[in-house]
Amino acid sequence: MFDDSYLASAQQNATIGRFLSGTRVAYFSMEIALHPKMHTYSGGLGVLAGDTARSAADLELPMVFVTLISRQGYLNQILDDSGWQHSEDDPWPVEEFGCPLRAKVAVPINGRQVWVQPWLHVLRSPIGHDVPVLLLDTDLPENDPRDRDITNQLYGGDSRYRLRQEIVLGIGGLRLLSALGFSDIQVYHLNEGHAALLALDLLRRYPRPADQVAELDLKYDVGRVRDMCIFTTHTPVEAGHDVFDYGLVGELLHDYIELDQLRLLGGQDQLNMTRLALTLSGFVNGVAQRHARTTRAMFPGFRIRALTNGVHSMTWAHPAFANLYNEHYPYWGLEPEALVQADQLPDEKIWQAHATARKDLIKLVAETSGVTLDPDRPIIGYARRMTSYKRPELLFTDLERLRDINRRYPFQIVLAGKAHHRDDEGKRHIQNILGHMKNLAPDIPVAFIPNYEATVASVLVPGVDVWLNTPVPPLEASGTSGMKAALNGVLNLSVMDGWWCEACLEGVTGWAIGEDPGEGPAQASAEDLYQKLEQAVLPMYHEDRAAWIAMMKQAISKIAPVFNTQRMMRRYASEAYMCTRYSEEHESE
């Protein structure tokens, strides 16, 4: 359960010295979910980073994490009477979770020196090890008023605001590590392209001798930087890769590096932060096997490996399931592979744990939406960022068909999710869903929980019976919410994309919607979804409870031991952090 178990004491938060010696890996992420009350994350990327930090602490990996402080959070979701989303700031009590460190560095932005100060938050594993997290802050009296808000809002503002944030994260974060005394860092892990300027700042430190540089050639030793940088790319959606006009780059980073040199690294027409990170990283990976193949097609010529994401098991197991696992497998938290034996757990204990999780969700739905769920009907859950490629309305394509299915096999639906500030299509999906909800009442209970965040997820995901996922293939990078569901015995019903291509055993661990599209795109239709609900999922729930529980146990035993951040971080440690990385230019598989 997402709780306070990984918070260190205020006294521990006040010291940095004990981390300076021996810390080998610096992990940079624009967002990170450390605690529900710390609004330093927006969704899956940040939750993954937080789970990564918790597993690093569990496994005693010598790491430091660097992110932005995001004082005003991501967004507080307000839905008006028409169902339209409005966004408000979502501030959090910075002083309760960290302390400012005395070191400060300046980074050049738009001809001004912008000072950056780190706050320290310590993440402590219940096992006893801890890792430091540095939260970068520009809200300082010595800064120009135009620069004090750079680290205020996560993903706020326009492209100018975003580039300023990425300058602070990449360049400022790298320089702060040096200023604080982290002298043993050997590896810089870039979690998405937001921190790619870190690699560029490293590059400026390694000029090549002038007599070795031909005209139109790179003037810097790229191989030296590649040996230090690891890059994890997360999105197969073009809009998810940050690009900036070189005019803006030249304005904000005037004389920082020659633009003709930067074009050789990050693209000729615009600065593509993903391409920059790809070029300057010796180890690059996608977050699922399918995603790695998709990314290779988007960026041909680069060697992109597949290292599938995971979830932090101890954080995302509902207390009822955690207690059950503790009873039978005492070391499951540190070694989730022990859950491979979960198919031997007694049926009645699995169902009792699930009933407890359902009860918690039913209570949450009543409190947050006013909808009363039926404890005897199966609950279909859907919660993710509301945007068009995730097709949040696919389930509602034919309301009469849904009513017809419901007459034979009654069910109910719980949804949640935020749209980005500037994503009007995403906001329209939310508005439409709320309209569908009214249209289907009273036949089918449908609830929408506002302000989806980690605390809500920790109740919603384990409390449903079926976890629905309907993106347009191949646009799902990984999809860790489904992993959280399986950890709690919830069965996935998903298109064949992201992680589900690796985990789906039809009728064993869950169900697929439509056919596997292979390497090309394919849109599973609403009809595929309705057929699977009507012919497989709902009949089993209503008519063969023993078979349903058997599938729950198979989902736990076959998915939870593999799709977790303990396994993921062990792979990073052995395959990326502790091995010689590649510096061959644009090596391809």
Structure description:
With 589 residues, the chain is α/β, with parallel strands linked by helices. It has 2 domains: 296 residues, Rossmann fold, CATH 3.40.50.2000; 246 residues, Rossmann fold (3-Layer(aba) Sandwich), CATH 3.40.50. It is built from 22 helices and 20 strands. Strands 1, 2, 5, 6, 7, 8, 9, 10, 13 and 14 form a 10-stranded mixed sheet that branches. A 6-stranded parallel sheet has the order 17-16-15-18-19-20, with helices on both faces. The longest helix has 23 residues. The chain is globular. The two termini are 40 Å apart. The C terminus is likely disordered.
| Total discrete domains | 2
Kindly state the number of beta strands.
Answer: 20
Helix content: 25-40%
CATH class value of the largest domain = Alpha Beta
Quick structural overview:
The chain is of the alpha/beta class and 589 residues long. It contains 22 helices and 20 strands.
SSE topology sketch:
Elements: H1 10-13, H2 17-20, E1 25-29, H3 44-58, E2 63-68, E3 76-79, E4 85-88, H4 94-97, E5 99-100, E6 105-109, E7 112-124, E8 130-137, H5 159-180, E9 187-191, H6 196-203, H7 222-226, E10 229-232, E11 243-245, H8 246-252, H9 259-266, E12 270-272, H10 273-279, E13 283-286, H11 289-298, E14 305-306, H12 313-316, H13 319-328, H14 347-369, E15 379-383, H15 399-408, E16 412-416, H16 424-440, E17 446-449, H17 454-463, E18 466-469, H18 480-487, E19 491-495, H19 500-503, E20 510-513, H20 526-543, H21 545-559, H22 565-577
Parallel strand pairs: 1-2, 1-9, 2-8, 9-10, 10-13, 13-14, 15-16, 15-18, 16-17, 18-19, 19-20
Antiparallel strand pairs: 3-4, 5-7, 6-7, 7-8, 11-12
Helix pairs in contact: 3-22, 5-6, 6-10, 13-14, 14-17
